[in-house]
TrEMBL record:
<protein>
    <submittedName>
        <fullName>TolC family protein</fullName>
    </submittedName>
</protein>
<feature type="signal peptide">
    <location>
        <begin position="1"/>
        <end position="31"/>
    </location>
</feature>
<keyword id="KW-0732">Signal</keyword>
<dbReference type="Pfam" id="PF02321">
    <property type="entry name" value="OEP"/>
</dbReference>
<dbReference type="InterPro" id="IPR003423">
    <property type="entry name" value="OMP_efflux"/>
</dbReference>
<dbReference type="InterPro" id="IPR010131">
    <property type="entry name" value="MdtP/NodT-like"/>
</dbReference>
<comment type="similarity">
    <text>Belongs to the outer membrane factor (OMF) (TC 1.B.17) family.</text>
</comment>
Length: 449
């Protein structure tokens, strides 16, 4: 309790009352960073290079400008070029032989002499057993695998974008709470310091106020560091300039837009089967291994070589023209080793697919359970609690003015109010994070399918 000889107590308490009235404002405006007119508030003066983005705008800019996404998209085009290459046939080969010197006529390169010798051979390899079509099928599957990697990267980076976006947004709301409390408490400490210098308040009360102010400042600094990391991540994801400050914008009813109770695991599993492109990558890899096994069996069939020969004077008759057919005999090498290895790889890829399918189902089940738990906690929280707490703070201030409570009790309520605001913001953040984790596990937004 304050010293009864403190003459300006009523004036000081009235000042403190006005300050705390600001602290007891309705929590919805504070938590969503809005004034009663709906304008966004900021803990610092708005910079000219502040980029305000909604989640939809962030998605649009991310897909258009993210360098990793653009690079992965080029990988699809690269594999499509390999498809074109796999369709091309083997080039024909030509062989030309001539005599460099005619000893009888003593001429060099005697092309025009009737007794000169030239040989011309043309060869064309004909691939049998459909090898070209089988290689084309593998090339097309490679393109599908590149598309799988692209869409899985898109899923992963979108999850990182959304979670960072929400974390930065709710950190900004928490920062507004700290800024307001620190501003109020700093003025309180200044007033207490003046009265302590006059001998009107004890040192222990002033020390408690300063210690609590230091604690708030430290917590605020930690929150600022987290914001700095989040903004740096968003800068990379959105490929914005380093001087641009990203400010997320979110509607006040964002946590209430979706309800997990509308979803069931029986509906989520089929969605994951379709939209989890990492799982599709395993299926395509198993398909490719099966295609490779078919190709290796076809490789055991030897290819055919067609040949045409022209011999001017080296044969039994002048200007000899001959046609030949060549084929290797599959006696020693029937591609047995490659076929056996392809069979093993096919079995291995199928086992990997089965294992990863179980992993995806487990991911969906875990994310669904966590989203349910978070929603239950969120639904049980009475959102009027913060408003009631604000009114309670006013009552505490009135009792403090009447010297019915001391500074320790006042700081306890002060700290409880701060914790309630921060925890409510964190609860909303947890709610959005759990929904994003569910979207990540399913591979798409299940509320839109």
């Amino acid at each position: 309790m304050l010293n009864s000889q403190f003459v300006p107590c009523k004036l000081y308490a009235a000042c403190l009352l006005g300050l705390v009235f600001g602290l007891g404002a309705p929590s919805s405006a504070l938590l969503y960073g809005q004034t009663p007119t709906g304008n966004q508030v900021s803990s610092a003066p708005a910079a000219t290079d502040t980029l305000r983005l909604s989640i939809a705008q962030a998605d649009e800019q991310f897909k258009a400008r993210n360098l990793s996404v653009l690079a992965a998209q080029l990988g699809i085009n690269e594999n499509q070029a390999y498809e074109i290459q796999s369709q091309l046939r083997v080039n024909p080969a030509i062989y030309v032989e001539t005599m460099p010197y005619n000893q009888q006529t003593r001429e060099v390169l005697p092309f025009k002499q009737s007794n000169a010798q030239q040989v011309v051979q043309v060869q064309q390899l004909i691939r049998l057993a459909g090898k070209r079509n089988k290689q084309l099928a593998i090339a097309k599957t490679n393109t599908e695998l590149a598309a799988d990697r692209f869409y899985d990267l898109l899923r992963t980076l979108t999850y990182q974008l959304h979670t960072t976006f929400y974390d930065l947004y709710y950190a900004h709301q928490s920062l507004a709470v700290y800024d307001q409390e620190i501003a109020t408490l700093r003025q309180t400490v200044d007033l207490y310091q003046q009265q302590y210098d006059k001998g009107n308040v004890p040192l222990k009360d002033l020390t408690r106020l300063k210690a609590y102010l230091f604690n708030l400042t430290t917590e605020r600094q930690q929150l600022l560091r987290r914001q700095t990391d989040d903004r740096a991540d968003l800068t990379v994801l959105l490929n914005t300039g380093p001087t641009v400050t990203i400010q997320p914008v979110l509607p006040a009813n964002a946590p209430d837009q979706f309800s997990v109770s509308r979803l069931t695991l029986n509906n989520l599993y089929p969605l994951a089967e379709v939209h989890r492109f990492d799982l599709k990558g395993y299926r395509d890899l198993a398909k490719q291994e099966q295609q490779n096994l078919v190709l290796q069996k076809a490789m055991a069939v030897p290819d055919l070589t067609l040949q045409g020969t022209y011999d001017r004077n080296g044969s039994y008759i002048p200007n000899y023209i001959g046609v030949g057919v060549g084929i290797s005999l599959p006696l020693l090498n029937k591609n047995q080793g490659n076929i056996q290895a392809a069979k093993i790889r096919t079995q291995s890829s199928q086992q990997s697919l089965n294992a990863y399918t179980l992993q995806v189902d487990s991911d969906v089940q875990r994310a669904y359970a966590k989203a349910q738990q978070t929603e239950q906690l969120y639904q049980t929280f009475d959102q009027r609690f913060n408003d009631d707490f604000g009114q309670l703070i006013q009552g505490v201030t009135t009792n403090y003015k009447k010297q019915n409570i001391d500074v320790v009790e006042f700081l306890d309520f002060f700290d409880s109010y701060k914790n309630s605001q921060i925890q409510f913001a964190q609860l909303q953040n947890d709610r959005m994070q759990s929904l994003e984790e569910l979207n990540f596990a399913v591979g798409t937004n299940p509320f839109q399918n």
